[in-house]
Each structure stands twice: as C-alpha cells, then as structure tokens.
Amino acid sequence: MLKQKHFIDSHKGLTPVFILLLIFYFNAWNNVFATIYLALHGTYGLLWITKSKIYPDKQWEHKTTIWYGLLIWAGLSLYWISPYIIVSNYHVFPIEIRQHSIYIAICIALYTLGIFLHFTSDMQKYVSLKLNPGNLITTEMFEKSRNTNYLGELLIYLGFTLLAQDWLPILCLFLFISVIWIPNMIK
C-alpha cells in the first residue's frame, strides 16, 4: 500500500519537469519570471524530497488508497497555476507591478526566509520528537510559535504565487491554507 508521502513527494519532484515542459511548450526560454520560478520551485521540490528521506514527517507516513492519493495530487496541482500563468502570460486577475526588479527581489526574499523557517523547524521537530516523543516542543524555533514550519511554507508559497502577478494563485493558496493547513495546525 502506498503512503501519502509517495504522492506528495512525487508531485513536488515532478514540479520542475512540469515547469520545463511549460517553458518548452510556450517557448518561454527568455521569460525571466519563468526561469526564476523554475529555479525556486525546482529547488524547493528537491529540498522537500531530501527532507522526506532524511527526516520524514509522521503526518505523511499514513497509508492511503490510490484514490485518496490522486486527490492529494489534484490538490497539490493547484500550485501549478502560478507557473502556468507566468509561462503562458495568460492572466486571470492581473496585478499591476511597476518595479519588476524590486518585486522579484521581494519574492526571492520571501522564498529564502520561508525555506529557512520551514526546513530548520521541521528538522528540530523531527529530532525533538525522536528524542522526547509526545512532548510539546517549546524551544528554539518553536519558542514563539507552534507552527514555525507552516509560517515558513506560507512564505515559500507566497513567494511563488506573487511571482505570477495574478490574484488567482493567491486565492488558491488561501484556499489550501483554509482547507489543509489550518486543520493540520489544529491537530
């Protein structure tokens, strides 16, 4: 039987392939936003898979049916709206940006800070729960917030969605936060 992580990891691992196929299909090799997005989301996917192997999250270790796994895949595919908008240049609810270089820098900064918060707090959570199972983590990364890893993920995906310069990916992100993240944080 497959685990939830198999569907999550495969989706995150195939994301850079999907983006490359979009770039190829739309011949968008000179699209700076597309190549930056590929670099950011591609490295995130590789980091996620590495993290899943080195310090897996128990939450995604649950066994699942193929149908629920495909539902996971479909949900995660909402994140592919951003690269589609960026590469195709088809905007649904465009956001007008005047200073592209500053805007790109802000997106990259959000992503970088998010990567740090997400992966360091997940590593601390993994090690702390391995050494002290069942105890609430209240030190270092979790001293001020119980959900530092989710804050990191929010910043990562905010960096991704803002690069699309469209409200649709932002709405999808907040839908995902409401339906998946918040219930997981409450557990």
Description:
The protein has helices at residues 4-25, 32-54, 66-76, 81-88, 100-131, 148-163, 167-186, and strands spanning 2-3, 63-64. Helix content is 71%, strand content 2%. By secondary structure, it is mostly helical. It has one domain (2-186). A two-stranded antiparallel ribbon has the order 1-2.
What keyword list fits this structure?
7 helices; 71% helix; mainly alpha; 187 residues; 2 strands; two-stranded antiparallel ribbon
Poorly predicted parts? none
N-end to C-end Cα span: 25 Å
Task: Output the number of helix runs.
Answer: 7
What is the radius of gyration? Answer: 17 Å
Mean pLDDT over all positions: 95
Number of strands: 2
Assess the beta-strand content as a share of residues: under 5%
Summarize the amount of helix as a percent range.
over 70%
* Gross morphology: globular
Largest sheet, described in full? 2 strands, antiparallel
Number of domains: 1
**Helix and strand sequence:** EHHEHHHHH
Strand order of the largest sheet: 1-2
Helix and strand content put the structural class at mainly alpha
